[in-house]
């Protein structure tokens, strides 16, 4: 459900880490202190903690406008114009740039075997995979290890906190919002560049999100533009998927609304 990544709206190539980082860090600390009061994932699978709903709905309306006027047409144009093999190659490149961040987060989570897999994937795809343009690691049967700092906080025992919708980014929680900021610094490749528009990961992230928005346009459109309440629907699906991602061993924590072709996308699967 995410629309575009935060860095995508940087005004010019003179944006540098400095005062914005201090502001972001202070914001992250305040969010983290808010979600720290929750120990683990205390909410029931279908329960939603949304004390900022009025603000979130305003942000959602803004994101819908950005998506309708800019991101949706750009994504459809990109997917229609770029051949699928090239689009897949660009996505593989973007995913490979994220591997160092996965490595760092896996270490922080104490998952040293997964960290080794992330590092191995990065080495294989960067060398044999022509700089990451081909996913040679997957071809060799090496599993993907996608993770983020939000998951690291979950492993450390922080609760998900309140649901929030971030401008330009989309659905999140206070814990994952902290993760979004922290991930700017957990990836050694991204942290190397002082100018955001000189960072290859910046462009790779935009391209990957364009691809996802274009390829799954019908599904995303049905949620954003055909739902009776697109905000509630996006919130429900995001929380279901995120909780399942973090608590995958608990199958009851997730219901896939698109698993059954006769499923009503407007119905709350946890409604009594």
Structural overview:
The chain is built from eleven helices and two strands, in the order ααααααββααααα. It is mostly helical and 272 residues long. The chain has one domain (6-253). A two-stranded antiparallel sheet has the order 1-2. Strand 1 (163-166) and strand 2 (170-173) form a beta hairpin. Helix 2 packs across helix 9 (200-215). Residues 1-26, 36-41, 251-266 and 268-272 have low confidence and may be disordered.
Summarize the helices and strands and which ones pair or pack.
Layout: H1 19-35, H2 53-81, H3 84-108, H4 112-127, H5 136-139, H6 149-155, E1 163-166, E2 170-173, H7 174-186, H8 188-192, H9 200-215, H10 217-224, H11 230-246
Antiparallel strand pairs: 1-2
Distance between the termini: 26 Å
N-to-C SSE string, H for helix and E for strand? HHHHHHEEHHHHH
Biggest sheet layout: 2 strands, antiparallel
Q: Nearest-angstrom radius of gyration?
A: 19 Å
Structural class by SSE content: mainly alpha
Number of helices: 11
Mean pLDDT: 80
Global shape: globular
Strand order of the largest sheet: 1-2
Q: Can you give the helix content as a percent range? A: 55-70%
Number of strands: 2
- Total number of domains: 1
Give unreliable regions as ranges: 1-26, 36-41, 251-266, 268-272
Portion in strands: under 5%
What's the short story on this structure?
This protein is an all-alpha fold and 272 residues long. It has helices at residues 19-35, 53-81, 84-108, 112-127, 136-139, 149-155, 174-186, 188-192, 200-215, 217-224, 230-246; strands at residues 163-166, 170-173. It has a two-stranded antiparallel ribbon with strand order 1-2.
């Amino acid at each position: 459900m995410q629309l575009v990544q935060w860095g995508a709206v940087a005004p010019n190539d003179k944006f540098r880490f400095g005062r914005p980082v201090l502001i972001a860090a202070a914001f992250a600390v305040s969010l983290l202190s808010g979600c720290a009061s929750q120990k683990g994932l205390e909410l029931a699978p279908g329960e939603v903690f949304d004390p900022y709903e009025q603000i979130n709905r305003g942000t959602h309306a803004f994101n819908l406008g950005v998506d309708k006027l800019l991101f949706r047409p750009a994504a459809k144009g990109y997917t229609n114009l770029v051949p699928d093999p090239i689009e897949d190659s660009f996505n593989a490149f973007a995913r490979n740039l994220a591997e160092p961040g996965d490595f760092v987060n896996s270490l922080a989570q104490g998952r040293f075997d997964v960290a080794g897999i992330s590092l191995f994937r990065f080495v294989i795809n960067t060398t044999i995979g022509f700089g990451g343009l081909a996913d040679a690691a997957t071809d060799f049967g090496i599993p993907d290890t996608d993770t983020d700092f939000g998951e690291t906080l979950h492993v450390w025992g922080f609760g998900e906190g309140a649901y929030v919708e971030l401008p330009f980014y989309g659905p999140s929680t206070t814990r994952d919002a902290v993760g979004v900021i922290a991930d700017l610094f957990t990836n050694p490749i991204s942290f190397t560049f002082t100018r955001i528009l000189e960072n290859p990961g910046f462009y790779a992230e935009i391209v990957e999100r364009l691809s996802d928005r274009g390829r799954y346009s019908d599904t995303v459109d049905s949620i954003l533009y055909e739902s009776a309440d697109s905000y509630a629907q996006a919130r429900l699906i995001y929380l279901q998927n995120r909780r399942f991602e973090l608590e995958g061993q608990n199958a009851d924590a997730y219901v896939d609304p698109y698993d059954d072709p006769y499923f009503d996308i407007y119905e709350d699967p946890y409604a009594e």
